[in-house]
Amino acid sequence: MKFIKIVLSFSLLFSASAQANVVGVNTQNFNPTNDGLDFVTVHSSKTLTPGLFNLGVFLNFAVNTLPNYEDITTQKRTNFNDSLVSSDVNFAVGLLTNWEVGLSIPALLSQSVESDVAAASGQFENTGLTEFRLMTKLRVWSNQNSGVALVGSSNFNQIEDDPFAGEGAGPTFNFEIAADRQVGPIQIGINAGYRLRSPGTQLLDIPVVPMGDQYIGSLAVSYLLANLDVKIIGELFGSVPVDSQAEFSDRELSTLEALVGLKTDLTPSLAWHLGGGTEVIHGTSSPDWRVYTGLNWVVGPVFSEPQEVIVKVKDQPLRALEDLDATDAYIDPPAEVESFIARDILFEFNSDRLRPTAAAKLQKLVDYLMRTPVYSMVTVEGHTDSIGKRSYNLELSQRRASRVRQALVSMGLESQKVRAIGYGASRPIANNGNFQGRAMNRRVEFQVQR
């Protein structure tokens, strides 16, 4: 209940939000993602863990974003300058494995417009909400380093007398494919899609034809400076109209913007963004330059608990240890080596002290290992995320592995058949550049030989 109140408070305070790039209203091309994973405006293929909530609050200041029109009576080109301050409040939640939904509420907070003549110009009569957007993302394929997701969203325009939408316009729908790949500290993401508009009729005395359908796309590259816990992000995002149409302003209907930013984690659940961008094509809603800052705050999981100890056997699907109860036959065919992954739930934060609930989880593992055919060797591996010094992470992982080894021996395993090794952050299984990936990397693995 407290979290819901906080979300509503942010929404009322900033009245803003967004989800993908170039799928917002016609006045804003900068739209941070709902889930806050990996990039700024470009979707990765990842989705939030079931029960995990993300709240994003962004502010951006853009200079010379609005269109400039010729004076209709004198054909005189105006000297037109503007600046806009906009906000984005983004909300997303993981519902099921590989599926999340989100809500966005963008708003215009302030504008400044200077013109040397009274001519038609693209400016707002007042500030306030610009739209609501619903979003859903489904990850359809993945391996350890790559993934593909389908992203859909719908926009409900809140701007009255919007000439780009037209009189009586309906909602718009955006369909995208998001793909990404991790190569060491470098992550690459690409989005491509189609925006289906429902334009209304042209407003009287306004030299703007409502915009039609668009092709939309974006590209992102990030580099993680693990020792500093800072991610450098570069993005390109733009759109191209499906059909050509007349345009009387100084701007093209096609758009392309570039962005460079930094992302760092203030706490394990709070990430801070800072960066800027500029137009590559002098297109609709593309600024001469913009700066932005924002926060992503993660809470949960609230209504779903992750699998605590996962069984991983070559060529077989992952399963929870609890699924292998006493009535099950041993895995058939028997594997030479089984892997068990225990998430960071075993330990107190940044410590090798076992949590009170860890004993019951480890006892289930011991009971399973004693089943016929019994184990011949168990290797306990400690792993950390990349935050902190390499020497500290290596030492912490060794202490954690040794502490688990002591617990297993005390529960009945033979000491000469149990060994402990700490690997620090050298063997990640997920991207250390976001909160979910770091949580997955903080783990203890058990390599079991029968």
Keywords:
450 residues, mainly beta, 6-stranded mixed β-sheet, 4 helices, elongated
Explain how this protein is built.
- This protein has helices at about 1-15, 360-370, 390-410, 435-440, and strands spanning about 55-65, 80-95, 100-115, 130, 130-140, 145-155, 170-185, 185-195, 215-225, 230-240, 255-265, 270-280, 290-300, 310-315, 320, 335-340, 375-385, 420, 445-450.
- The longest helix is centred in the last third of the chain and has 21 residues, at about 390-410.
- It has four helices and 19 strands.
- Mean pLDDT is about 80; it is low at about 1-20, about 70-75 and about 325-335.
- The relative contact order is 0.13.
- It starts with a helix and ends with a strand.
- The radius of gyration is 26 Å and the shape is elongated.
- The protein has a twelve-stranded antiparallel β-barrel with strand order 1-2-3-5-6-7-8-9-10-11-12-13.
- It has about 450 residues and is mainly beta.
